[in-house]
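Office hours follow-up: a student asked to see two folded examples consecutively, so here they are.
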Amino acid sequence: MKSIAYLYKNLIKITGLGKEKYSKKLRMERNGRRFCE
């Protein structure tokens, strides 16, 4: 799972597409985890 996420990050870095969307998604996931915990 970790390797897949790493490849996905690299793919976005290479393409440069959806960079803002991915960062927002990460923030939402982190906030969600904090909220759940």
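And the second, which I mentioned at the end of office hours:
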Amino acid sequence: MHSGPEQAQRRQQGVHVKADPARPGWVYVACYGEGKGLYRSRDRGESWEKLLTNAWMRGVAVNPANPDIIYATSSQNTCCGAPPEGSLGVVRSIDGGATWTQVNEGLPWPFAWPIALDPADPSVVYIGSPGTGFYRRRFEDPR
């Protein structure tokens, strides 16, 4: 059974799925490959909107205390030193995905893959960067 963004169903090299912890039925999918981008469904996967395009998305995390704060990671290549085209690194939205800002301070280049929020303090973000290790960063809640 296939569900999800039509473009993301074709020849996907990988996806990361994250349910919104504060909004039942909301799901995010980070995709790379042919259907690359960040998608969101607000109706349990019946329909999808593309939030980020033309980037090899690898991971997504939603702040459970403020679900308008969303993080996504991007890395075109898994090897360090590869050209950064198609890679955003780490991006953050504080308005539910309407706008995005790159937040790559502290990363040697804009490649990031796994991402997780600290369950005890979701302002603390853990980021994995291929070939360079893991990073910890604190972001203030804009409220």
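Two things to take away from it. The chain has one helix and eleven strands. The longest strand covers residues 12-19.
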